[in-house]
Amino acid sequence: MPRPKDRALRSETRALIAAAIDRLDGKYRTVFILREVEEFSTATTAEILDLSPAAVKTRLHRARLFLRAELAAYFGAEARSTGYARAS
């Protein structure tokens, strides 16, 4: 059974990620949600959005870069404080 502190941290983490996703430009957010949340393939996402597969891949890449940058300050500090930071 998770400890209350762990549950609180997971809840905070989910809220931070959701807020960062909400800050994505709509065209990137839609692709991100279809690919990463709904787990549609690149081809299916392209068909749904009437885009080329290359455009889907580009938008997903840009969405991931944005989210990484948005969350880096929090998770970088959190990882260092818990000892889970990646070695450089």
How would you characterize the overall build of this protein?
The structure is a single chain. Helices cover 80% and strands 0% of the residues. It is an all-alpha fold. It has a domain at 26-82: Arc Repressor Mutant, subunit A. The longest helix is centred in the last third of the chain and has 30 residues, at 53-82. It is elongated.
Q: Can you describe this structure in just a few lines?
A:
It contains four helices and no strands. It has helices spanning about 5-25, 25-35, 40-50, 55-80.
Which descriptors apply to this entry?
mainly alpha, 88 residues, 80% helix, disordered C terminus, Arc Repressor Mutant, subunit A
Task: Break the fold down into its secondary structure elements and pairings.
Blueprint: H1 4-23, H2 26-37, H3 42-49, H4 53-82
Helix pairs in contact: 1-4, 2-4, 3-4
- The secondary-structure class comes to mainly alpha
Helix fraction by DSSP (H/I, runs of at least 4): over 70%
Poorly predicted regions: 83-88
Number of helical segments? 4
